[in-house]
Amino acid sequence: MLPHERVRFAHNSERQFAKLLDFYGIVWEYEPRTFVLETNGDGQPAQAFAPDFHLPAYDLYIEITTLNQKLVTKKNRKLRLLRELYPDVKVKMFYQRDYLALLVKYGLEQPDQLEPVPDVVEPLPLRFDDFDTDVAARRRARPKPA
For residue 113, which of 7, 28, 23, 12 has the smallest C-alpha distance? Predict the structure, then answer.
């Protein structure tokens, strides 16, 4: 039994991402750590963030978000706060467009909760050690909206 078959995921997109990692032999952990972002007056956690995956070989956390924009905005806020409070923690957000690019590139089925896959989706690398550089280069190459 493969690792992705032993975990109960919150979303199908997480299962598919784990399936891809398993196929390429990339060791992962599902929601292994919760980062406290804010505490209340009693010192108890008031706000926290648990990234979906941890890739131990890269010491990298990955959050996959294929949800509506309101929830994406909330996750972006939490991600910014996590980076401020835990500057040594490497964490990446995979947005719906990034996730769809992986589906197209690696021929995975499309989860029911997503919009149809566009005809042209830019593929992403499956190497996580150079992910920062690739994302920055693609963003610079995108045409600016008029």
Answer: 12
